[in-house]
Amino acid sequence: MHYINGSWIDGSSDFAVTNPATGEEVGRVADGGAAEATQAVDAADAAFQSWSTTTAYQRSEKLYAAWELMTERHEDLAKLMTTEQGKPIRAARNEVKYAADFLLWYAEEAKRIYGETIPSGRPDQRFLVMRQAIGVVAAITPWNYPVSMLTRKLGPALAAGCTVVLKPAEQTPLCAKAVFEIFDEVGLPPGVINMVNASDPAPVGDAWLNDDRVRKLTFTGSTEVGKLLGGRAATNVKRVSMELGGHAPFIVFDDADPVHAAKGASLVKFLNTGQACISPNRIYVQRSIAEEFVTTLAERVAKMQAGSGFTDGVSIGPLVDEPSVAKVERQVNDAVEKGARLLTGGQRLTSDGLDRGHFYAPTVLADVTPEMTIHSEETFGPVAPVIIFDDEEDILAKANDTAYGLAAYLYTRDISRAWKIAEGLRFGIIGINDINPTSAAAPFGGVKESGMGREGGHVGLDEYLDTKLVGWSV
Ligand code: NAP
């Protein structure tokens, strides 16, 4: 169902949602297009005047109530996410907590949309700077974090006083529906948030990008689609924020503990079965500790169990669909053909009923070189490619040699080295001996082709606010 102007609306046709672990149909949702997309903008545009002039305290109360309800429904949402998206239930619980954090953070931050006064050079003049809601925001979200990618946009948009039209990924509309149910139940006025589902996203995107009433596009997804939509948004000068793909380097220096670093690499690389934008895609380890690092990493990965996210002990869920498995298989085969050493994994998983879903074995590749596709293309799957390096001098150039610039990690106990490398890495997020440099309170986002703008933290609110200058003669 779509959610437009405070009502759940059926469509004339629908599409199936399947469990990627089993291939079973778990629901059907209405299939929308340009007509529903425009109806959603009609509703959001009509609601903007009154929503944007509510007090910050009123908007904060709604976000706080949504946080309370999401927290109450934590377990139900986590189970739905495991069913629809496939991630192990513990990871799903973590995501729901992370998603709810954005509602709470922006419930608080709504009250801190400050302006400023600026001294003028003229004695009879004063300057006042106001910050006001941008208007109707179009939000398009991916399937890999199907609840938090919505709240990371809805939280700041609502806090700022914007109204929203949102299209969730076609693989995870049930999680999106559950988020909208929460806002519906807390009594958000009709039209403030609207959702359109579609099996073909292009007509919805076109309708929103061609509509002058939509003043901003916030997109999370692949760099390829981001470029397409961003280019179109530029033609009528819409504000844009983009959270796109990544190709994170993970650098382990010789003064780091190789066992500790290998543990970190195994945890962050295989998070969400490698389907995370901040997933390491090039693991660089300095030669003198490489053997211990690689052995520990391969041992840990070989023990990882794949299967249904509801099964105890499973840490590797399915990939989202068959093309994703085929992409991983192609990258691994290409690397092995070009000389990479396969230390564990390296094949599809089909026994014990896994052939009903989309499973690929957690894999470690050593001796990866720049000629291999995996060295430059985002994997989005459970493959850890390891590269040995010798010199600190050229590791920075190697790490930065990518069109992407989202996350980067480094392990060292040398504080000068940590500082210099963190400064030199051309990425938006750096983890120093840390594999989870994310929080609702902190700015998340990339540079270069990984995107523009930030989500989270107080700067996340700026993305939904225009700055207005008032010059005042007194
Ligand atoms: P995607 O294929 O780019 O899709 C993202 C969203 O865009 C989906 O809702 C999709 O709809 C929609 N879309 C695709 N083509 C469109 C068009 N022509 N007009 C309007 N909407 C369109 O990406 P994905 O496979 O869902 O997500 C994986 C990618 O997201 C990875 O590259 C990952 O790194 C990135 N990501 C980045 C972040 C970050 O914060 N930087 C976070 C999570 C994921 P359909 O579902 O109907 O195709």
Report what the structure shows.
It is globular and about 70 Å long. The chain has two domains: 2-244 and 448-473, Aldehyde Dehydrogenase, Chain A, domain 1 (3-Layer(aba) Sandwich), CATH 3.40.605.10; 248-432, Aldehyde Dehydrogenase, Chain A, domain 2 (3-Layer(aba) Sandwich). α1 packs across α7 (201-209), α2 (56-72) crosses α6 (173-185) and α3 (74-85) crosses α4 (89-109). The protein contains 14 helices and 22 strands. It has a seven-stranded mixed β-sheet, sandwiched between helices. A six-stranded mixed β-sheet has the order 9-8-7-10-11-21, sandwiched between helices. A three-stranded antiparallel β-sheet has the order 5-6-22, with no helix packed on it. The longest helix is centred in the first third of the chain and has 21 residues, at 89-109. The protein has helices at 34-52, 56-72, 74-85, 89-109, 148-160, 173-185, 201-209, 223-235, 258-269, 287-302, 322-337, 392-400, 415-424, 459-462; strands at 2-4, 7-9, 14-18, 25-30, 116-118, 125-133, 136-140, 163-167, 193-195, 214-220, 239-243, 248-252, 280-286, 305-306, 314-316, 341-344, 363-366, 383-389, 407-411, 429-432, 451-452, 465-473. By secondary structure, the protein is of the alpha/beta class. The relative contact order is 0.14. The chain binds NADP nicotinamide-adenine-dinucleotide phosphate (NAP). The site of NADP nicotinamide-adenine-dinucleotide phosphate has 28 residues, from α7 and α8.
